[in-house]
């Protein structure tokens, strides 16, 4: 094989994704070619971590997924509680505003009723001399 072909297939050789015959051809070439061997060593240093086995606990990914789902559900419930709290606060605010408006309207209508009392109106009219003089003229 040519060096160019070997160098193009080195990544696949490291990952062991080639046919057995091609793997043997590359291995033989690497024993005889220092340039390709140097490139192989550099690539293997960079990509060699893929060949190492990681020490992963059994059921790690399923446990992780369960924890993530639990956190997602917790966040959903928390947001639901926040919405419920906001609704409660809005209802309380509307009631307070309604109560305030009711008190203001009650005071206004109470003052209007007092000022429209017929005896007060008669007293105001008859006590006012300028009104009598204006009416008589």
Task: Offer a quick outline of the entry.
With 137 residues, the protein is an all-alpha fold. Helices cover 83% and strands 0% of the residues.
If you had to describe this structure to a student in words, what would you say it looks like?
The protein is mostly helical and 137 residues long. The chain has two domains: 49 residues, no CATH class; 83 residues. It is 83% helix and 0% strand. It contains six helices and no strands. Helix 2 crosses helix 3. The longest helix has 56 residues. It is rod-shaped, with a radius of gyration of 47 Å. The protein starts with a helix and ends with a helix. The mean pLDDT is 76.
CA-CA gap between termini: 133 Å
Would you tell me the structural class of the helices and strands?
mainly alpha
Mean pLDDT: 76
Total tally of structural domains: 2
Q: Kindly provide the radius of gyration, computed on alpha-carbon positions and rounded to a whole number of angstroms.
A: 47 Å
Number of separate strands: 0
Which ranges are low-confidence, i.e. pLDDT below 50, for 5 or more consecutive residues?
Answer: none
Please write the string of helix (H) and strand (E) elements. HHHHHH
Largest sheet: none
Q: Specify the overall morphology.
A: rod-shaped
> Strand portion, in percent?
under 5%
Number of helices: 6
What is the helix fraction of residues, given as a range? over 70%
């Amino acid at each position: 094989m040519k060096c160019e072909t070997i160098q193009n297939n080195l990544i696949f050789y490291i990952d062991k994704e080639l046919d057995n015959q091609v793997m043997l051809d590359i291995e033989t070439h690497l024993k005889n070619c220092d340039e390709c061997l140097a490139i192989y060593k550099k690539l293997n240093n960079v990509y060699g971590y893929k060949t190492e086995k990681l020490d992963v606990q059994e059921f790690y990914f399923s446990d992780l997924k369960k924890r993530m789902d639990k956190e997602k559900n917790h966040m959903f419930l928390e947001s639901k509680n926040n919405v419920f709290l906001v609704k409660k606060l809005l209802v309380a605010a509307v009631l307070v505003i309604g109560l305030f408006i009711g008190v203001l309207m009650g005071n206004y209508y109470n003052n209007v009723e007092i000022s429209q009392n017929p005896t007060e109106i008669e007293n105001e009219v008859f006590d006012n001399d300028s009104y009598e003089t204006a009416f008589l003229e």
